[in-house]
Design brief:
Blueprint: E1 8-18, E2 21-28, E3 35-38, E4 41-43, H1 50-62, E5 66-81, E6 84-97, E7 107-111, E8 116-123, E9 133-134, H2 139-142
Parallel strand pairs: 1-6, 3-9
Antiparallel strand pairs: 1-2, 1-4, 2-3, 2-8, 5-6, 7-8
């Protein structure tokens, strides 16, 4: 197992609520084919503030503008993906989508730099041991236990 580049990566993720559901990106671990979910967002570039990175990632990946992003938490995430070990510092924000029509969509295309992904609205009941939300600490925010 490699060390994922042996560096800590800073990321900004957005918690977007739609009633009891939240917007998630679908992922599959290439090492085991396991489906998982994560909140949309991505890496923070050098010199960029976390909230700026969040806005940029939503524009680039979803073509969406954010309204009133508010930082909720910072979470340390150490995980294995594709057989490699990774370490992230996650800046978690709650925000709203400017385009209200996006709340009526059931599926989203998420344009990554080197791939195309999918997203959808999921409720807390959709996050199970078989299809988890990562990092797992986010579940407390999704269920409304922490704000």
């Amino acid at each position: 197992m490699s060390d994922g580049g042996n560096r800590i990566r800073a990321v900004a993720l957005g918690l977007i609520r739609n009633g009891d559901a939240v917007l998630v990106q679908h992922g599959v671990d290439p090492a085991n084919g396991r489906l998982f979910f994560r909140l949309p967002g991505g890496g923070i570039e050098h010199g960029e503030r976390a909230v700026e990175a969040l806005r940029r990632e939503f524009r680039e990946e979803l073509g969406a503008e954010l309204v009133d992003p508010r930082q909720l938490e910072v979470i340390e995430n150490v995980f294995v993906y594709g057989g490699d070990s990774f370490h992230e510092i996650v800046f978690l924000f709650e925000a709203r989508l400017e385009d209200q029509s996006l709340y009526n969509r059931t599926q989203f295309v998420i344009e990554e730099t080197s791939s195309r992904g999918h997203g959808s609205w999921k409720t807390a009941a959709d996050f199970t041991a078989a299809t988890p939300l990562y990092p797992p600490e986010l579940l407390a925010f999704v269920t409304g236990g922490m704000r």
